[in-house]
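Figure 2 data, in text form.
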Amino acid sequence: MYDIALSVSACVRSGTRADVVWMVSPSASDEAVAFTPGGGRIGSVAGGAFDGFLADVASRKLSTGRRIEHVVTDLESSLSGLPAGTTVGFLVVPADQLPSTIWPRLLNREAVAVSATLTEDDVTDISVATLDDAQGRNRELLEAGVSAVETEGLVTTTVFAPFPRLVVAGQGPIADALAQQGALLGLKVLVEPRPGLVAGIAATLSSIDSIVVMGHDVESSSKCLLAALESEAGYVGALGSQAMQQSRTDWLAYQDVHDVSRVHGPAGLNIGAKTPAEIAVSVAAEIIGLRRK
């Protein structure tokens, strides 16, 4: 849900229809997909395995949200990893039926509990709660800090809990090792070698996220570092020699950016790391240490 919040909230503000879909059985995740008129799609659920089916449902332009079920085919099984024959359940909800308070909370990467009241399969009411205002069972679910779905009576509650992300701006053996180390820690890892795309990605980072900038080209890596500093990322790391760090600092100064106190550079704890794997461990340890503080 977090990955689509920015685009869907823009649709809501502009009056563009968007139908938001998320899975409620057999498992929960923070994923969601939105469909717009004309075949547009934002985000992905289950690797896009059910996009055709879900797009058909969204094309009906339902006046209210609805719970739908579908039996996984062999092809969908190969794409989603769910066993063929499994019954999956989704909630399909017009974006304007969701409380407007959900979008800033998702953009701030807060955990949210979305409670949908169902009459038969129609969504007749939706409420959103965070730890600031949740009570009872919703509060317990939010405090657990993991995505979950729970149904009690007519109400199905989906808890969306953000996974910390690690963006690696660069490529090569160290980037690959960082991706592996991040995955081992349960982070959502994105390796982006194209400097031009890093700014857009960085705009969605929050205080629970991390970004590591690398590269031998001063200008392109400095642009990535500028995007990182403009983000809300809790950890900003820069790999490279002291000379490269100084060159990037000088480049940023020319852009009138003089406060680089957030930058951990060279990134990683000083453990004498030499190999890509060792460097990745040192960076991961620094990220963990900062988060625990």
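Caption note: The longest strand covers residues 87-94.
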